[in-house]
Amino acid sequence: MKRPDATAETIATLREEAAACRACPLWENATQTVFGEGPQRARIMLVGEQPGDKEDLAGKPFVGPAGQMLDRALKEASIDRTKAYVTNAVKHFKFVPRGKIRLHQKPGTPEIRACRPWYERELASIKPALVVAMGATAAQSVLGKITPINRNRGHLIELADGIKALVTVHPSYLLRLPDEAAKAREYERFVDDLKIAAQALKQTAHAA
After folding, report:
1. Contact by Cβ (8 Å): 128, 166
2. How many distinct structural domains can be found in the chain?
3. What is the pLDDT of residue 8?
4. Which of 50, 145, 155, 182 is most buried (CB neighbours < 10 A)?
5. ∠ CA(178), CA(184), CA(186), 5° rounding?
């Protein structure tokens, strides 16, 4: 993958280039590259795992059930999604076919590494104040290493260039919980993490 001066790259330019990405085999079965979207100068960047079935078909991140869960939690945390840049660590849908259904498969480390330059270029282009890594795949991409969620969530982590990161669960995790009481409890924890992000954004705005 060519790496021009990232400071001169816009998200529109990156999206166009990523549409032809062949850095790993996932493109072969996916409908399309699902790149990030949001304001060019967003102050917060939300990073998920990979597009799901709905996202693969729509070509947009977080438009399926997990996206609806995310939208609800962001609203409760007083974060405006339209002002956030939303993307995934891996830009193609990884799945196994089961009849007419495409079952999600977790991306592996080779796929995360192959796609990480896109994340790095998104980060360099947008220069957000805060990156929220949702789930283990996102945390591995953002922090550059395997990062346990529960041991690292709920507090700010310093990245390069003064950017901070916050690790939390992926909203799809909440959807998979079979117990309603556990789902409600974990949802509140997720909102609490996003409230930490909202507070951090306020503090950086005041500092600026």
Report:
1. no
2. 1
3. 62
4. 50
5. 85
pLDDT score, position 205: 75
Rounded average pLDDT over 20-37: 97
Whether residue 1 is contained in a domain is answered as no
What percentage of the chain exceeds 70 in pLDDT?
95
Distance, in Å, from the CA atom of 208 to the CA atom of 204, rounded to the nearest integer, reads 6
What's the CA gap between 65 and 148, in Å, rounded?
24
Residue 69 lies inside a defined structural domain of this protein: yes
> What's the whole-number average pLDDT of the chain?
94
CA atoms of 133 and 170, how far apart (whole Å): 8
Which class for 7: exposed (0-12), middle (13-18), buried (19 or more C-beta within 10 A)?
exposed
More confident residue, 28 or 4: 28
DSSP character at residue 68: H
Identify the CATH number of the domain in which residue 161 sits: 3.40.470.10
